[in-house]
Amino acid sequence: MLGYLISSFFNIIASLLSVVSIVFVAYSFFTVGRQWNKGNNQDLFNLLVVSGAFLILVRIIDIVIKSSAYFFKPTSSIFLVLIAIGVPAIIYVISTSAGEKIYEDGYFNKLSDTEFLKSEIMAAFSQFMKEIEKISSKVSKEVNSSNTAHKKASNQNVGAGAYKYTEDAGDFHGMLKENRSLLLFIILNIITCGFYWYYFVHTVSREVNIACAGDGEQTSGLLKYIILSILTCGIYSLYWDYALANRLAANGPRYGYTIQENGSTYLLWVLLGGWVCGLGFFVARNITIKNLNKICRGYNQQNPIF
Questions:
Q1: Does the keyword Transmembrane helix apply (predicted)?
Q2: Banded pLDDT at 57 (limits 50, 70, 90)
């Protein structure tokens, strides 16, 4: 009985990962199809490689878990792997045959640098998220008419590469995103099967470290967040949000804001409010987003790009 339950659990996990990987690849193809030759082709092609590699890894896990089942049929896995490999290969061949250069000379030698590799992966993923945000914004009805022009300017700066890592963190000259909303946060997480959360952690940590620079604190990036969350069975993710809320509250006066909600407020809503149908988490997340928007708005006002 116990063996059956364990087997069923792993089968469910494998199936969920399969769905996520297929959705990721499908949206990546969609993004590349819309943005090719309109933006950064290198980042777009890297998006194909990253999503394809993730799908292949998931298919391997799926085969290992389900290979003993009598209903297991590897045909679909083989077909998906061929698509994940074939589509990027075809695009690369066609592009190079047409005289286009996707990668600069010496690019692959730089991949041995962990920071460079991480920056390229996140830059590719940002192309994916920007396309998702465009789609979801048509669904969302939250529009603030008083700062529409400012929002457009901010989005254009994001599109120009404000979210791409560079070797020198001091070369940031863009606008920080100040119009995040809980509704959009929920929609994007649903559309991306939870992937948006990791993009949220990546962008928030980067922007908070920019806006709050000099306060003696450092908000952990995505890689550290994932590793420590796994090692601590999710406890670190709570600490990350707790520390983030404290840092936002501490830096409020720096930009002329009095922020009452701190890390303790966040934990109270998550741990106690979670008993009310889980609504406490959304209240806590809304508090974080609201205070984050204040800090980013204050930074943008003190550091205009025009």
A1: yes
A2: confident
Which domain range does residue 181 map to?
176-302
pLDDT of 299 over the 70 cut: yes
Question: What is 272-285 written as a DSSP string?
Answer: TGGGTTTHHHHHHH
The predicted-structure confidence for 152-204, as pLDDT tens digits, reads as follows: 544 444 444 443 433 334 444 468 888 888 888 888 888 887 888 889 999 99
Please give the sequence-ordered ranges of beta strands (E in DSSP) within 44-136, or none if there are none.
none
How many domains does the chain divide into?
2
Considering the domain boundaries, does residue 192 fall inside one? yes
Q: For residue 37, give the 3-state DSSP assignment.
A: coil
For residues 1 and 119, state if they share a domain: yes
Residues 126, 188 within the same domain = no
What predicted TM-score, i.e. pTM, was given to this entire model? 0.50
Query: Which residues, in sequence order, are CB contacts of 252 under 8 Å at separation 6+?
Result: 258, 259, 291, 294, 295
Cα distances (angstroms) measured from residue 15 to each of 53, 59, 79 = 17, 10, 16
Tell me how far CA of residue 213 lies from CA of 123, 157, 169, 209, 218, in angstroms.
Answer: 22, 21, 11, 5, 8
CA dist 197 to 5, 60, 106, 281, Å?
A: 29, 25, 33, 14
According to DSSP, residue 160 is labeled I
Mean pLDDT of 61-69: 69
CA distance 296 to 255: 9
158 secondary structure, DSSP code: I
What type of residue is 134? K
Judge if 95 and 200 occupy the same domain. no
Is position 150 within any domain? no
What DSSP designation does 159 have? I
The answer to the question of residue 286 being in a domain is yes
- 76 occurs within a structural domain: yes
What burial class does residue 92 get, using C-beta atoms within 10 Å of its C-beta: 0-12 exposed, 13-18 middle, 19+ buried? middle
CA distance 102 to 88: 12
